[in-house]
Specification:
With 216 residues, the protein is mostly helical. The chain has a single domain, classed as Glycolipid transfer protein, GLTP (Orthogonal Bundle), CATH 1.10.3520. Helices cover 64% and strands 0% of the residues. α1 (11-20) packs antiparallel against α2 and α5 packs antiparallel against α9. The longest helix has 28 residues, at 182-209. The protein binds ligand 1Q0. Residues 40, 43-44, 47, 51, 54, 57-58, 61, 112, 116, 120, 127, 140, 144, 148, 156, 159-160, 163, 173, 177 line the site of ligand 1Q0.
Length: 216
């Protein structure tokens, strides 16, 4: 496990990006959103090889969205609202099962990440509120069972359960986020949760409005 000087995950950068991605009109800037996610991927990579499968799957999602942003219709992918509008108008949302060999839609891809944010919110909250005796693997499993697991297949759930067991103890997690004690950790983690909740709620509203919470 790498400590905070040996890897370049910075929780501050992640929180900042989750803050900056929210616009005044309560929309989400995709570019900043992806910056936050790249930090999360770095964090998973710092935890070791057990998490490689999860982090590379997450990277695939980030790359799909970045691909749309850099693509010929990139200007329509600047924010979540503009992406949804564009994909709806052009009927590329994939409301039905995606034909093979096609790049999944932006809406469908973002939905996966959006669901994962709810998990992250619970997990980081648990970590922040922990008095120190709790096991990280248990806190992570609890968060997962309340949230993301409902959207995962049996196979993926088994993969997740194995990964949880490989989570380092709380003090080591603190080192990865560069905090030295529980009080500091609590502040950092609850600030992060706050930023994530804001982003989550905005996305949730847009997706609810367009009946997009169950895209296959
Ligand atoms: C560090 C702890 C990591 C624990 C991860 C728990 C989540 C388990 C996820 C398990 C498997 C993911 C592999 C594949 C999933 C896909 O099937 C699924 C759906 O996509 P699709 O195309 O098949 O329909 N994909 C997803 O759900 C995408 C999201 C994956 C999970 C992202 C988890 C992000 C969590 C990061 C934790 C970092 C904590 C950082 C801060 C720590 C501060 C102390």
């Amino acid at each position: 496990l790498k400590n905070c000087k040996q890897h370049d995950f910075q929780i501050g950068k992640m929180v900042e990006a989750f803050h900056l991605c929210v616009t005044e009109k309560k929309d989400i800037l995709l570019e900043e959103y992806l910056i936050a996610w790249r930090q999360l991927i770095k964090f998973m990579d710092a935890l070791g090889t057990v998490f490689t499968f999860i982090s590379s799957e997450t990277m695939t999602k980030v790359n799909i969205l970045q691909g749309y942003l850099n693509g010929e219709h990139g200007k329509h992918y600047r924010t979540v609202t503009s992406m949804v509008k564009y994909e709806l108008e052009n009927e590329v949302v994939n409301f039905k099962e995606l034909p093979p060999n096609r790049v999944p839609s932006g809406c469908r891809t973002l939905l996966r990440m959006h669901r994962a944010l709810k998990f992250l919110e619970y997990f980081l909250y648990n970590l922040g509120m922990s008095a120190g005796q709790d096991k990280t693997s248990q806190m992570c499993a609890d968060a997962y069972h309340k949230t993301l697991s409902h959207h995962h297949s049996w196979f993926i759930r088994q993969v997740a359960e194995v990964a949880f067991l490989a989570l380092p103890p709380l003090e080591d997690m603190y080192k990865v986020v560069c905090v030295s004690n529980h009080k500091e950790a609590k502040t950092v983690l609850l600030t992060t949760v706050d930023a994530i909740v804001k982003v989550y709620n905005i996305t949730q509203k847009v997706y609810t409005k367009h009946g997009m919470l169950d895209l296959p």
